[in-house]
What we know:
Number of helices: 14
Number of domains: 2
Number of strands: 14
Order of helices and strands: HHHEHHHEHEHEHEHEEEEEHEEHEHEH
Structural class: alpha/beta
Strand content: 15-25%
CATH topology of the largest domain: Aspartate Aminotransferase, domain 2
Radius of gyration: 25 Å
Amino acid sequence: MSYLFSTPDEQRQMLQRIGVDSLQTLLDQIPAELQINRPLDLPPALSEPELERHLRDLASRSVGTSGRTCFLGGGAYDHFIPAVVDEVASRGEFYTAYTPYQAEASQGTLQAFFEFQSMIAELSGLDVANSSLYEGGSGVAEAVLMAMRCTDRTGRVVVLGSTNPEYVATLKTYLVNKSTTIDVIPTPDGVANIAELEKLLDDRTACVVVQQPNFFGCLEEVESIGKLAHGAGALLVVSFDPLSTGILKRPGEIGADIAVAEGQSLGTPLQFGGPYLGILACRQQFVRKMPGRLIGQTVDRNGNRCFFLNLQAREQHIRRAGAMSNICTNQGLMALRATVYLSLLGPHGLKEVAELSCRKAHYAADRLKLVNGCELSFGRPFFKEFVLKYRDGADVAIRRAAAANIDIGPALGRLPGTDWMTSEERDQSLLIAVTESRTKDDIDRLVTALSPG
Length: 453
């Protein structure tokens, strides 16, 4: 059970109720010899992340093993999750909420999803967000299909090669029975070549898909890419890291028409691949082409604020075979976790998480560059993730780190969509992700594990 301190106003009310003017009056009733009139020899207070780490360390000692440290990247990250997220999400009224239709939808569930939409719209810098898709990959695919509907173009989609290869594979699966050409631009420098992109844009292009920060952690020139896309009459789809908006411009501020994201970093733990959370937001003029569900706010006949399912063009509802999408769940529990997490962080907390992740990632990169046999693959600005080139091979690096109870990777050689890399680059390259949860000691241990000898 959680405990919350009483406020000063509540304390005054309680004292008035029992007829006492102050808390000290109550304490004075304790015999003087039993009162503690000296400072207690207590250690400094710990923050919640520090306390959790301390308890995990104590637990690992009792079983004779040390806990593992996660530097894994590639689209799912080990960010700190406040305990209250689990507490709220595990409440019965939320834990069992799935995907109700209008007649079954409770006001509590609808309000939670409405708050989620409001936060995502603010986070993305766009006008409206839906109540979520499956995960980041389906989000990209649904955004592309939405762009086709908005532009009445189905001939071509241009995707930057620095986009998560699993997202690209999901998009190709979605479009396998369409005549759409998917052009994936190689990114040997870690980011898109603007001149090469311009050559591919024509009057058949529905959209350009860019990830920011991209799969390699690098920052793309999204505003320039957006201007080229809009100049060709295409839409700009931006797949973004929600937490990066604490220090980077939001998708809506850099020209995105549709923004999508993987919401796992917003309060969902790493759990063998899912369930995760797909995020999608867009500009107001495209709202009627949006897939999934949208929660609206209105007033009832008594003038009270209430919520309802709005603009539903899902297959199980009125459109049937003519629906814009077959998305049949809103990942409600994951969306709730994201809502609780974001409400706890607030703007200042979001900025702090982003800054810590960025600074720690750059500290790790600077330390690793000094290790013999290590170098960064790309000399580009990056956020919290980077590609490390390990001379002895990525698989060797992963094994050496694992021996020190550290998880790193994935190795780029095991991922699709990196054919533009040389075989040597594929064998030697791996991802390193550093979040706010990692400490200086964690990073230094990683450097030691990868150091020769």
